[in-house]
Automatic annotation (TrEMBL):
It comes from Oceanobacillus caeni. This is FAD-binding domain-containing protein. PANTHER family: 5-METHYLPHENAZINE-1-CARBOXYLATE 1-MONOOXYGENASE, MONOOXYGENASE. Keywords: Monooxygenase, Oxidoreductase. SUPFAM superfamilies: FAD/NAD(P)-binding domain.
Length: 60
């Protein structure tokens, strides 16, 4: 899941669109590695979890 669907944010500006771009960039990086799909998705989650958690908390 990318953008607004994965990151509950206030609908102002282009938060969801910006996050979707950052999500897609990280997904591309992990899928470019020699990993299984499961490993790549786990790596993606680890990379994005803390930054997204911080954004979501700041939007509350």
């Amino acid at each position: 899941m990318l953008g607004d669907a994965a990151h509950p944010m206030y609908p102002i500006g282009s938060n969801g669109a910006s996050q979707a771009i950052l999500d897609a960039e990280e997904l591309g990086k992990v899928f470019d590695q020699d990993l299984t799909v499961e490993e790549a998705l786990k790596a993606y989650e680890e990379i994005r979890r803390i930054p997204i958690t911080n954004i979501v908390k700041s939007n509350r």
